[in-house]
What does this fold into?
Amino acid sequence: MMRNIEKYRNAFINVLDLEEDDVCEDLALGVTREWDSIGHMTLISEIEDVFDVSLDSEWITEFDSYLSGIEILKRLGVDFD
It folds into this structure.
């Protein structure tokens, strides 16, 4: 079974059309070329589907980097250990 961190990484790979090696902790909204406003909403949608969670507008705004996304999902009860 796939671990949550792998599901999370795959969301970035699939939605932003990144190579596996491109997915790292440095990814950030507006910095990573593929992660623009449209990519952001698609990524949010994918992550909500994959983890069966719902992000409110405040969290969607806060989700501006690879690491902040993990922190938000942890607050929603997603286990990354």
